[in-house]
Amino acid sequence: MDFSGKNVWVTGAGKGIGYATALAFVEAGAKVTGFDQAFAQEQYPFATEVMDVADAAQVAQVCQRLLAETERLDVLVNAAGILRMGATDQLSKEDWQQTFCG
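and the corresponding structure tokens:
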């Protein structure tokens, strides 16, 4: 597919599925911004924004700034995730909220 000229945001883009997704959009011609709590490398083939998607105020601030700069968002991929080890029925309410609800 051709995503030339499209603005794409990918959460969890620092590594794993999020990184692979962001890279695929770059290769398809999109202007990609990747979001993550931290980025392991110094350089990525897309713009990066350090952001915790579980922090609603931070998300609102970053999104407002980026939308003012780009004027539109064409694609949003939510690949951010967190893993809590243990049986699902034994997760604390806080762990459940963070894992499944962001």
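(Above: one complete record from the training split.) The longest strand covers residues 31-36.
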